[in-house]
Design a protein that fits this description.
The chain is elongated and about 55 Å long. The chain has six helices and no strands. It has helices at residues 5-20, 22-41, 45-75, 81-109, 114-124, 126-141. The chain starts with a helix and ends in a 13-residue tail after the last helix. It has a single domain (17-141), classed as Orthogonal Bundle (Helix Hairpins), CATH 1.10.287.
Length: 154
């Protein structure tokens, strides 16, 4: 169906990011950790909405950064100042959003003793916590193909 085709391409992009971009995997893992912290801290609906907006911003900017880097690489293989500036500015956008997300996390998790609730939840489930940490480390550090996967076109 023509209606579903764009969704297929979008999911191919998400899978490409997971497979090829370590920074995306790091950010996705951080988002999953934040979800676990949010559950333990019993966030309210408005706080959840802020959390998901931050996830969308950081992960969306990482996807945009990757797309821009690939486009620049298609245009030129030489080292050019404007190409470097484009890539650096896109990376800066991701960095700014990631740093601001730390501020949001601080505001959501530090007040009202929520940090203690998170620690108590981790202590109550030590094997699950250890498994999650191991899975997160493997997800982040097991190398992808670095973008060398089949580069088929639509």
């Amino acid at each position: 169906m023509k209606l579903l085709r764009p969704f297929r391409y979008a999911f191919e992009g998400v899978f490409y990011l997971i497979r090829c971009e370590r920074n995306f995997r790091v950010e996705l893992t951080a988002a999953l950790c934040a979800v676990l912290f949010a559950r333990a801290a019993r966030l309210e609906a408005r706080e959840w909405s802020v959390l998901f907006a931050v996830f969308a911003l950081v992960l969306g900017l990482e996807a945009f950064n990757t797309a821009l880097e690939r486009c620049v690489d298609l245009v030129t293989s030489e080292k050019r100042p404007l190409a470097k500036a484009a890539k650096d500015c896109a990376a800066a956008a991701v960095l700014i959003a990631a740093l601001m997300s730390l501020g949001v996390g601080y505001c959501l998790f530090v007040p009202e003793g929520r940090g203690a609730a998170i620690a108590a939840a981790a202590a109550a489930h030590p094997f699950a916590s250890a498994f999650f940490v191991l899975a997160a480390v493997l997800f982040i550090f097991v190398p992808g193909d670095g973008g060398r996967a089949d580069r088929s076109y639509h």
